[in-house]
Design goal:
Belongs to the LysR transcriptional regulatory family. Pfam families: HTH_1, LysR_substrate. It comes from Kitasatospora cystarginea. The protein is of the alpha/beta class. The chain has ten helices and 13 strands. The chain has three domains: about 100 residues, Winged helix-like DNA-binding domain superfamily/Winged helix DNA-binding domain (Arc Repressor Mutant, subunit A); about 100 residues, Periplasmic binding protein-like II (D-Maltodextrin-Binding Protein, domain 2, 3-Layer(aba) Sandwich), CATH 3.40.190; about 90 residues, D-Maltodextrin-Binding Protein, domain 2 (3-Layer(aba) Sandwich). The longest helix has 24 residues. The chain is elongated, with a radius of gyration of 22 Å.
């Protein structure tokens, strides 16, 4: 006799894990909290044991629950991929993608993932700074945008945090303010590195300022000033990295996928998976695992339970 796992119940489990609890999952899925609890009870009936174990106020997965969760993520992702693929329009549909220049190296893999899973899509690319691109996504002018900024709007998905490093000629112990090469406003990275310098009471002056990343890289390469970029900028563009400890390194910058309200849920999941895969070569931390790849979880010593979150 066959026993089948229900995709909607598995989606509930995945959402509980990503949202951090039953109540938040119910809100995301537009379900009542009793309905969410019922989904978990039905999964437990198939599993033959508990999915979650409560220790005080901490919600945890049992070992069996963690194994089920791994399958749930893959089954839900495959379901969404299949739905997006078989329901994709046969005629060519334009799909507009925004991208901040610092992440342009991820573009080939991102486009490859989109076209492979959505064969009826014709992508158009729009390069620009994060804030203007996010505004265009919110207005429905762009479908998605891969941005170096924290998720702020509804529907924006967090992808991880990008490690940063300083590049340029070593300022050493030279007196006077630090000469900086910066992108013009509005620029999230610019504000982030200036906040870091301010927190350490380091004086600075602008030696170069321009709207394009290519001009910024050129200014740094010829020694006009130093700047803070993605930690693999030496590999991407051949820039010289400052020695460790030369300047305080800003905290990693969040990376997010902004999604317009009109984009169907199945297409959102495809774009999310394509973005996750495209960023694997970057110095990114805290990234959500790509479905189908092993997930590392924190295990409490002396127990068979795995901590949620």
């Amino acid at each position: 006799m066959y026993r089948n796992l229900d995709v909607s119940q598995l989606r509930t489990l995945v959402t509980i894990m990503s949202a951090g609890g039953f109540r938040r999952a119910a809100e995301k899925l537009s379900l009542t909290q009793p309905a969410v609890s019922q989904h978990i009870r039905r999964l437990e009936a198939v599993l033959g044991g508990p999915v979650f174990a409560r220790t005080g106020r901490q919600l945890e997965l049992t070992t069996a629950g963690q194994e089920l969760y791994g399958y749930a993520r893959r089954i839900v992702a495959l379901n969404d991929e299949a739905v997006a693929r078989i329901t994709a329009p046969h005629e060519v549909t334009e799909f507009s993608v925004g991208l901040c220049p610092q992440l342009e190296g991820a573009l080939p893999d991102f486009l490859s993932g989109l076209v492979k899973l959505l064969p009826g899509v014709r992508p158009t690319i729009h390069l620009g700074l994060g804030e203007p691109l996010a505004a265009r996504v919110a207005a429905g002018e762009l479908d998605v945008a891969l941005l170096l900024r924290p998720p702020r709007e509804d529907g924006t998905r967090f992808l991880g945090a990008m490690r940063l490093a300083w590049f340029g000629a070593d300022p050493g112990s030279a007196g006077g303010p630090l000469s900086l090469a910066l992108c013009g406003e509005p620029c999230n990275l610019r504000r982030h590195l200036l906040d870091t310098l301010g927190a350490h009471d380091l004086p600075w002056q602008i030696a170069y300022e321009g709207p394009e990343l290519a001009g910024l890289r050129a200014a740094v390469s010829v020694g006009l000033g130093v700047t803070c970029l993605l930690a693999n900028a030496d590999e991407l563009w051949g820039l010289r990295r400052l020695p460790a400890g030369a300047l305080p390194v800003p905290e990693p910058m969040p990376v997010s996928l902004a999604v317009a309200p009109q984009v169907p849920a199945g297409v959102v999941e495809v774009a999310l998976r394509a973005a996750q895969r495209a960023l694997r070569a970057y110095p990114i931390t805290g990234v959500e695992p790509v479905p189908g790849h092993p997930q590392q979880a924190a295990r409490r010593p002396g127990t068979d339970r795995v901590l949620v979150g």
